[in-house]
Amino acid sequence: MRTGIVYHPKYLEHEQTPTHPERRERLAYTMDQLIEEGIFDRVKLIDPSPASLEDVLAVHTEEYVEFLRRYSKIGGMIDWDTNIPVGVFERALLAAGGAITAARAVVDGEVDNAFAMVRPPGHHAKPYIGAGFCYLNNMAIMVRWLQRRGFDRILILDWDAHHGDGTQEIFYEDDGVLFISLHQMPLYPGTGYPDEVGRGRGEGYTINVPLPPGTGDEEYLMVFEEIIEPVAKEFRPEFIAISAGQDNHYTDPLTGLALTAKGYAEMMRRAVELSKELCGGRLVAILEGGYSVEAALPYTNLGIIAAMAGLDLSYIREPEIYLGELRWRKKDVRDKVKKNLETVKRIHSRYWNCLRDS
Ligand SMILES: [Zn+2]
Q1: Which of 233, 246, 280, 342 holds its CA 20 to 30 A away from the CA of 68?
Q2: Residue 81: closest CA among 137, 17, 12, 11
Q3: Among 198-212, 228-242, 305-319, where is mean pLDDT lowest?
Q4: HSE (side-chain half, CA atoms, 13 Å) at 196
């Protein structure tokens, strides 16, 4: 596979406060690791263009965009987690534009798939307000761009540890976008229950799979086998878009999940397989959260990119010194996850043939 990475040094400029978890080292350390592994000899580095106002207004209200633009000049605040630092508007436009750049590279056949390694993240941003470190919803802005280019069935898989509440809200009544979110519960933002299924025409096209703290690689793969793969095959997407949060890693300081870098690589390998089977390999991943800057992000990003590019995954592993943390973070939650999956299947068997009597 020919894989693109959309990245710009300006993605390191965004900073809320020096101690904020969503900080520049998230990508700085990753870039060091990717260079050290020689990954840029194997993938295509792509320069992002900023999103246009038209792209942004396909998702966000004029009032919010005006508010963000105004306070981006003088500094301000959205909520306790989400300051408006000076200059954030232009940086958010470059992040959203990075997602569109990735989609365009795939649609134009310049690459088979692409990873938009952008900051600030986007999946908590709603049409009328940002939230949870997010200003503009990069994923939604990219998906709306794809819809304008004639893509009628798009699968969004959001595996960030937090529920993608902003993205869910934007596509809640849209039957052309299947939104599947796997997330830790309980955790911010407190939404993402299985009975949130979409509304109107969109009923059945939102699937929420809550996971208990301690969930690890085996359970994530179980969700792939029992929900994501069968439903994706029934939906037959023309494009697969992944909100690739990396805060499910067992060293993440904000969450309690226990996924490994190898687990991330395997999830992406399966997503790439699905894209090859269903939509000519068209897949874009967009970076969302992930706050373990040294122990996770350099390795999880590497695993994801290697899987997208079809490289050998056997060398993707955890740094030895952090393995102790996995032993206390990982819990025996198989039965709990199974129970949650049964609930999701029971609720969604009304909408999806593949989930009946299984
Ligand atoms: Zn997150």
Answers
A1: 246
A2: 17
A3: 305-319
A4: 18
> Token pair for residue 254?
């904000």
**Runs of H (alpha helix) within 229-282:** 229-235, 261-279
Residue 1 confidence (pLDDT) above 90: no
Distance from residue 11's CA to the centre of ligand 1 (Å): 18
Ion ligand 1 residue ranges (Cβ < 5 Å): 160-162, 245, 247, 289
* Rounded Cα–Cα distance for residues 297 and 197 (Å): 31
Q: Is the pLDDT of residue 336 over 90?
A: yes
Distance CA 335, CA 333 (A): 6
Read off the pLDDT of each residue in 88-99 and give the average, rounded to a whole number.
98
Residue 45 CB-half CA count within 13 A: 10
Give the integer Cα–Cα distance in Å for 284 and 352.
Answer: 25
Burial class (CB in 10 A: 0-12, 13-18, 19+), 269: middle
CA of 247 to the centre of ligand 1 (A): 6
Q: Is residue 28's pLDDT more than 70?
A: yes
Distance 108 CA to ligand 1 centre (A): 30
Percent of the chain exceeding pLDDT 90 equals: 94
Q: How far is the CA of 143 from the centre of ligand 1 (A)?
A: 20
When pLDDT is cut at 50, 70 and 90, the band that residue 358 belongs to is low
Asked if 105 contacts 114 with a C-beta cutoff of 8 angstroms, the reply is: yes
Can you tell me whether residue 313 is helix, strand or coil? coil
For ligand 1, the distance from its centroid to the CA atom of residue 255, given in whole angstroms, is 8
> At CA 181, angle to CA 60 and CA 337, rounded to 5?
160
In this prediction, residue 319 carries a pLDDT of 83
- Non-local CB neighbours of 317 within 8 Å, separated by 6+ positions: 261, 262, 299
pLDDT band at 188 (very low <50, low <70, confident <90, very high): very high
Q: 349 CA distance to ligand 1 centroid (A)?
A: 28
**What are the residue numbers of the active site?**
124
